[in-house]
Amino acid sequence: MEATSFIALSRQSALQREMSTIANNIANVNTAGFKGQRVLFAEYLEQPRFGEKLSYVIDKAIAFDMSEGALQTTANDYDLTVTGDGFFVVETPAGPRYTRTGSFKPNENGELVTTEGYAVLDSNNNPVSIPMDQGPLLVDEFGFIRTQDGVEISQIQIVGFDNPQTLQRAGTNLFVSLEEPIEPQNSRVVQGALESSNVNAVGEITRMIDIHRSYERTSNLIQQEHDRMRDGIRRLGKPNNGA
Asked: pLDDT per residue over 113-158, tens digit each?
């Protein structure tokens, strides 16, 4: 198989990876706090013997789109949003994880937890405890939790990262970090609201259509190359009657 076919196959592999990434984005278009992803490519051009120039790519990495999703107001005082570059910290069996999804609730022990049951951590790395006999609680923009009488109960831990692209997904809405978290530079907590997914469904579907068309063009080129090679082999196999 000649270079053109190898180039085309490498492009198909990259397109398949991008298609998978887009499909995951679309599947989470309604998931609160979800951050879409993009496949990063290095692109090259190759001129095959037949047809137009072929652009082929090598996928280098997958990057997060860290832009903020729209703020959606809810009627739940336990729904929290962290704006800017901040993340909530939750404790999982595998260690601390970071999330933008603030759909929390108190468990039977009075701890503030995620929908999966992971404890939300306070500024001292302890689970946030919610006294169930104090009535509705107030959460201010700095994450301080107070009773209706103004008594401070706890402070929800909010962290940031020098380079959020170093984060790795550890589930739909959780991230694990290879670097130590830092104080967020521009962040505040909003009570009674959730951050929507930042995925644009129309844009993702448009990209998916473009990728499908590109995949078909590449498949056609591979078939043309195969046909050309078969024709060349047949010609070489014919006896030379003029000898």
From this structure: 999 999 999 999 999 999 888 778 899 999 999 998 889 999 999 9
CA 28/CA 109 separation, integer angstroms: 31
**What is the rounded average pLDDT of the residues 152-172?**
94
- Is residue 175 left, alpha or beta, with left meaning phi > 0 and alpha meaning psi from -120 to 50? beta
List of long-range contacts for 126-134, beta carbons under 8 Å, 24+ apart: 127/91, 128/154, 128/156, 129/153, 129/154, 130/106, 132/106
Q: Quick one: which of 19, 11, 23, 61 has its CA closest to 39?
A: 61
* 28 pLDDT more than 90: yes
Length, in residues, of the chain: 243
C-alpha to C-alpha distance for 199 and 197, rounded to whole angstroms: 5
Q: Across residues 40-68, what is the average pLDDT?
A: 68
Whole-number Å distance between alpha carbons of 26 and 31: 10
Concatenated DSSP letters for 45-66?
A: EE--SSSS-EEEEEEEEEEE--
C-alpha 172/C-alpha 56 separation (Å) is: 30
Alpha carbons 111 and 102: distance in angstroms, whole number = 14
What is the SS3 assignment for 69? coil
Distance of CA 150 to the CA centre of its chain: 38
pTM of the model: 0.77
For the chain, give every domain's residue range: 3-66+217-230, 71-195
